[in-house]
Amino acid sequence: MAKYKGSGIEVIRALVKARGPEFERRFLERLSPQGRELFQHALAVSWIDFKDDPGDIPVGADMLFPGDPERIAKFGRLAAREAMSGIYKVFLRIPTKAYIIKRIAVLWRTNFDTGTAGVENIRNGQADFVIRDFPEFPEYQLDFLGGYIAGMLELTGSPNPQVVITDRNPQAWRFQITWD
Q1: In this structure, are residues 148 and 77 in contact, taking their beta carbons and an 8 Å threshold?
Q2: Quick check: helix, strand or coil at residue 17?
Q3: Are 54 and 38 in contact (CB under 8 A)?
Q4: Which are the contacts of 109, defined by CB distance < 8 A and separation ≥ 6?
Q5: Other CB atoms closer than 10 Å to residue 4's CB: what's the count?
Q6: What's the rounded Cα separation, in Å, for the pair 15 and 53?
């Protein structure tokens, strides 16, 4: 099974803490005991097996966007804003959107131990983000990643980026990205 870096958990921890102690308490109560332990103690450099995932993404999305069919993607957008807060936010407005998408692909190897990511078919306001040779994604991870990519593009100043999963093949997961 594939592994991911704990830096993603750190971002979600910051989102949860920012909503106050009562929100954090209710959030932690909804995690399993082993999920709670991992969520509270994972380091940014820790490698986490998908099978050990704490369940923080679905719980956070459900709590922040209850009943919303787009809740996981919206949570991914929030996570992108949290991850790129501070000085990073300023630098995201300088390069082109295509450059930012390419950088997200390059960062794949930093955050996942399996698969490769790339950008294909770049054209005016559109590109395909493709993850190759990656085992099956949990559905919520696909939605979260799509939301995260859209959130990164929003930080570049794109008012309405869209990210749609167009192929769910473990040999080539494909997201079509459009932006203004």
Answers
A1: yes
A2: helix
A3: yes
A4: 116, 117
A5: 18
A6: 17
Q: How many Å apart are CA 13 and CA 79, to the nearest integer?
A: 10
With H, G, I as helix, E, B as strand and everything else as coil, classify residue 123. Answer: strand
Closest of 35, 16, 39 to residue 27, by C-alpha: 16
3-state SS, one letter per residue, for 37-88? HHHHHCCCCCEEEHHHCCCHHHHHHHHHCCCCCCHHHHHHHHHHHHHCCCHH
Distance CA 107, CA 100 (A): 11
Distances (CA, A) of 47 to 44, 58, 73, 112, 134: 8, 20, 23, 8, 16
Q: Six-digit token pair at 56? A: 């923080």
Q: Under 8 Å CB-to-CB from 161, ≥6 apart: which residues? A: 97, 149, 150, 153, 154, 177, 178, 179, 180
Contact 68, 58 (CB under 8 A): no
Asked whether 166 and 174 are in contact (CB, 8 A), the reply is yes
Q: How far apart are the first and last CA of the chain?
A: 37
Which has the closest alpha carbon to 161: 124, 111, 110, 126?
126
What digits encode the pLDDT tens for the residues 96-153? 778 788 888 888 889 999 999 999 999 989 999 999 999 878 889 999 999 999 998 9
> Model-level pTM?
0.90
